[in-house]
Design goal:
The chain has about 325 residues and is α/β, with parallel strands linked by helices. It has helices spanning about 5-15, 45-60, 80-85, 100-105, 140-150, 165-175, 190-200, 210-220, 265-280, 280-290, 300-320, and strands spanning about 30-40, 65-70, 95-100, 120-135, 155-160, 185-190, 205-210, 225-230, 250-260, 295-300. The chain has two domains: about 5-125 and about 255-320, 3-Layer(aba) Sandwich (D-Maltodextrin-Binding Protein, domain 2); about 125-250, D-Maltodextrin-Binding Protein, domain 2 (3-Layer(aba) Sandwich), CATH 3.40.190. The longest helix is centred in the C-terminal third of the chain and has 21 residues, at about 300-320.
Length: about 325
């Protein structure tokens, strides 16, 4: 999406860091710099999303530079208040977040939740994958399902934050297998990096997370992928879905970006326009393909309406599973 000269000049006047730079080589640049806040540790899905945005935006000449800050913990609930309080009114600030943060806010009864930031754009959806270390005695989904049916508490499962998409997926799986979701032995990690290390180090017996967080380990043969949580198989893989395996469970993890409170409509729209422009680039399309992310682009008020529905649905599921 292109900006008219009048729109661009008005945005530049109102938005610190936003600039329309002359010259054909940088005519598309929307912001001199973007502050990208990631409420999780390096190496996980949110961090990967933020870095992918930077990659596409800088290669396309849409943003001059990026500054990153990572503050992990409690599914984003440690970092979120910091972003809300320290970046209020900062019109070149974005925060990566997603469905995990919805569940974490409910589970932790956090006074500051995803409802305290403004939705800019939903970007992707990603199916989860159930994995075990390559040296595990569990060779197939049938083996893992048998262990879950016998004694769920004896199989520690690592994933993202408590009450997040991964935790919910495990609860739904146990329920489908005829066990009480509260019997799960779930080990929450602040990011994909620690979760990977715990699985490979044998600290947990299995793991559940978005495919991109485990894909390199799966491709390298260090983890064995048993099943995915999507409606269909992940493109480029032969991993069966839970539904194919007779488990009527689906769960997808969406990710997107938010701006801080205090921005006016025009300032927020400038960030929406930036994300729309990034989404349209060939660089972003290549990233979606490479990382096996499903395109789920939705912006502004439409994203806000979706978010309200997701918060209500997640709260209902968490109550059913005894997690809220």
């Amino acid at each position: 999406m292109t900006m008219s000269r009048r729109h661009a000049l008005a945005a530049a006047a109102l938005i610190p860091g936003a600039a329309l730079v002359g010259g054909p080589a940088r005519a598309q640049q929307r912001f001199d710099s973007i502050f990208m806040f990631v409420p999780a540790g390096p190496g996980g899905g949110w961090d990967g999303t933020g870095r992918a945005i930077e990659q596409a935006a800088r290669q396309a000449g849409l943003v001059g530079s990026f500054q990153f800050e990572n503050v992990g913990g409690a599914g984003g609930m440690v970092g979120l208040p910091r972003f809300v309080n320290q970046r209020r009114n900062q019109a070149n600030a974005l925060m990566v977040g997603g469905s995990v943060m919805v569940g974490a806010g409910i589970t932790n009864k956090s006074p500051v939740t995803i409802a305290n930031v403004q939705p800019v754009a939903r970007l992707t959806e990603e199916a989860g994958v159930v994995v075990v270390p390559a040296n595990s005695e569990v060779k197939s989904w049938t083996d893992l399902a048998a262990k879950f049916r016998s004694n769920p508490g004896a199989v520690p499962v690592g994933g993202g934050s408590a009450g997040g998409t991964d935790h919910i997926a495990l609860g739904l799986i146990l329920k489908a297998l005829g066990r009480n979701p509260r019997e799960a032995s779930y080990v929450a990690f602040a990011g994909g990096g620690p979760a990977n290390a715990a699985i490979l180090g044998g600290q947990v017996g299995a793991g559940i997370s978005g495919y991109s967080e485990f894909s390199e380990q799966v491709k390298a043969g260090r983890m064995r992928a048993l099943a995915t949580t999507g409606e269909k198989r992940i493109a480029g893989t032969d991993i069966p879905t839970l539904k194919e395996l007779g488990i009527n469970v689906t769960a997808a993890n969406w990710r997107g970006v938010f701006c801080p409170p205090g921005l006016n409509g025009q300032q927020r729209q400038a960030l929406i326009d930036l994300m729309t422009a990034i989404h349209a680039t060939p660089q972003w399309k290549e990233i979606l393909t490479t990382r096996a992310w499903d395109d789920a682009f939705l912006t502004g008020d439409a994203f806000g309406a979706y978010l309200k529905q997701d918060i209500a649905a997640t709260e209902e599921v968490l109550k059913d599973l005894g997690l809220a």
